[in-house]
Amino acid sequence: MTTFVEDRQFLSPVLTQATAVVAQSGQGSYLTDTEGRRYIDWVQGIAVNALGHCYPSVVEAATTQIAQIMTGSFNLVGYEQTGELARRIAEIAPGDLSTTFFTNSGAEATDAALKLARTATGRPGIIAFKGSFHGRTIGATSVTGSAANYRSSYEPLMGSVYFSTFPAEEQCSPGLDAKGRAAFALDQLEQVLEYLVAPESVAAIIVEPVQGEGGYVVPDASFLQGLRKICTQHGMLLIFDEVQSGYGRTGKMFASEHFQVAPDIMTLGKALAGGLPMSAVVSTRNIMDKWISGTHGSTFGGNPVCAATGLAVLDAFEKEDVLARSASQGEYMRSQLEEICADSSIVSQVRGLGMMLAVKLTHPDGQIGGDLATRIRALCCERGLLLLGCGTNHDCVRIIAPLVVDRETVDEGLAILRDVITDVEAEIGASV
């Protein structure tokens, strides 16, 4: 039997991996590699495993369903599990969102949402934001603005897409507070509508309520409320990408709840099916009724195994009071990260909401700390803690622990992170 290292020559090099770890198994907060080494996993499939690896009731739901039927194609037959999942999503979704189209990944959900918006409005234009990440298909790449390299090899992309400013510190005039950045960004959007595309040509504005890949940037509520007002005024649809921020990650079921704003269309993914590939586009019945039957579809979308695990996830959320646990644990983790920030010469900021958290790295002389973030992640991996980066300058380290992580594991992981930051500070001091 060959090893993954030997077999990797048969995999496309377009896929990069953040570590050399080869996973064998996972349980809860921990991942074990093929050499038997155990890691605290604070990546969790990039927010996929909200309940941790192999949550028992999710595994049971999957195995039970697999023994009954794995797929018959939702284009051909219906599944009770998928219908029930759609109903339960409607019961918890914000505003009047009540109708769901299921697909397989966040990027596919983005593409579907864009097609829905264009069909429902009869307009071509889409406005997205700098710093955004919505996926890597051609459509999703067209509205992604977190890094030029995601787009550079694929031009020309989808037309009639316009980018505006997100209220991140890196994008706004210096010295502004959160409300000032929100006002600045809304003014920039008004200029896009004045100089680049007429409002009556815009189908939708697509935005992450909390930017993920762009650096875990939380806008002031006035920004999203302003977007809602502009969309309503001009007959545009407001799309919230909740693929990463949804399903309890921010301490509420959906990040939109923090801002008291309901979108017209919402995309979901990642945590939706407990580790299996499933995503969704959720909208109102009125908007969905304008999507012409047969003009979009998905071979695997609505898969009964994924739907069964999706139901198990929602059951666990209720049984384990996951939202309250996420909010409480998130407050504790943030307080500990703030202490690290206060004591550190290279951690300049703690970002995020709930358990969607990140620390920003900056050199003592103010230079961007992308190299520091890379070094910290590498040392943490060596010491048994898996982390990913984010930020348009790759200068943030994000923490995506299971929402049900216990306090002992939190403290263990934070201790590793704290020690690594101290060691990196010493390395910098030695090199000066």
From TrEMBL:
UniProt keyword list: Aminotransferase, Pyridoxal phosphate, Transferase
EC number(s) given by UniProt: 2.6.1.19, 2.6.1.22
Enzyme class at the top of the EC tree: transferase
InterPro entries the record matches: Aminotrans_3, Aminotrans_3_PPA_site, Class-III_PLP-dep_AT, PyrdxlP-dep_Trfase, PyrdxlP-dep_Trfase_major, PyrdxlP-dep_Trfase_small
Transmembrane segments annotated in the record for this chain: none
Cofactor entry: pyridoxal 5'-phosphate
Pathway the protein acts in: Amino-acid degradation; 4-aminobutanoate degradation
Annotated family: Belongs to the class-III pyridoxal-phosphate-dependent aminotransferase family.
Annotated GO MF terms: (S)-3-amino-2-methylpropionate transaminase activity; 4-aminobutyrate:2-oxoglutarate transaminase activity; identical protein binding; pyridoxal phosphate binding
Protein name in UniProt: (S)-3-amino-2-methylpropionate transaminase
